[in-house]
Amino acid sequence: MFFELIGTIIAGVAMALLVWAVNRTLLKGRLPSWLVPVSAGLAMLVATISSEYGWFARTQANMPGGFVVAQSVEEQVFYRPWTYAVPYVSRFVAVDQATMRTHAEQPGQRIVDLVFYGRWARTAKVPVLFDCTQSRRADIIDGVEFGDNGEALGVDWIAVSASDPILRVACEEV
């Protein structure tokens, strides 16, 4: 966040200096004096919007191997009117397929780590048990145990749609 603020300030200063220099040297002062701060403000706004829309692609490109984006959330906000034309991704869920765990006697169930990313938010990693055959999931919390045959004991199953994007990514064969 700090580096984005510095980048935004540098974009404004650079544009203000450019407009000032062009006005001073090439145009001999014919531009109105208000144009320098207005151009700086516009450059800062463009830098902020560019950073906002580029966050998802940058974050996705820097994810570790085995991470697959399962679901993303696009936002439209009234104080950012440009988001009504093109919504931006503010958060998303990735499935860590590299650390997927299964049990030989429970082939339809698997434990995966869901990683929650958010713009200006800490990344959270949550282990979740998915039952791919019955389209349900259970959060692995304190009190959850597994029997000798891999059966989950003490879990609260939550039914999900078979078309749920997170379930589909968690249950696909790697």
TrEMBL record:
Domain of life: Bacteria
Alphabetically ordered keywords of this record: Membrane, Transmembrane, Transmembrane helix
Keyword Transmembrane attributed: yes
Membrane-traversing stretches: 6-22, 34-56
Keyword match Membrane: yes
Name of the protein this chain belongs to: Uncharacterized protein
Species, as recorded: Roseobacter denitrificans (strain ATCC 33942 / OCh 114)
